[in-house]
Design a protein that fits this description.
This protein is mainly α. The protein is built from seven helices and two strands. It has helices spanning about 1-10, 15-25, 30-35, 45-55, 55-60, 95-100, 125-140, and strands spanning about 110-115, 120-125. A hairpin with a 4-residue loop joins strand 1 (about 110-115) and strand 2.
Amino acid sequence: MFSDNLVRLRKKKALSQEALAEKLGISRQTVAKWESGETLPDISRCAVLAELLDVSLDDLVNYDSSRNMALDIPPKGKHFFGTVTVDDAGRIELPADARRIFSMEAGSSVVILGDENQGGLAIVRADAFLHFADVIRQKL
């Protein structure tokens, strides 16, 4: 997983092995060994790589596109939590990771936003949305 992710992310950033190696202060051969799976970087180097490639350390090391509808690794701070099913009453269950990352628990208030032209809905914590709305109002 790591080696495949590294190759994809490096290419997505339009970096050669040489350019990535230069940014890390290592040889191109070291990057080539990581990409071939022959060796692995230490954890501190992985953290630097994740920062350079604008992804989370967890996604750099563990992201499996086959479990995520073949989507690319999202940029750091962006998440894909998978699909959920709407039940007969119109309810969905938010994935545990989403609840944890966005501090949502039983009783949390959310705002549901929709865009008919885009065919999408968004769920935002109510306190975050209201704060954002206040900032907008102050600027008007």
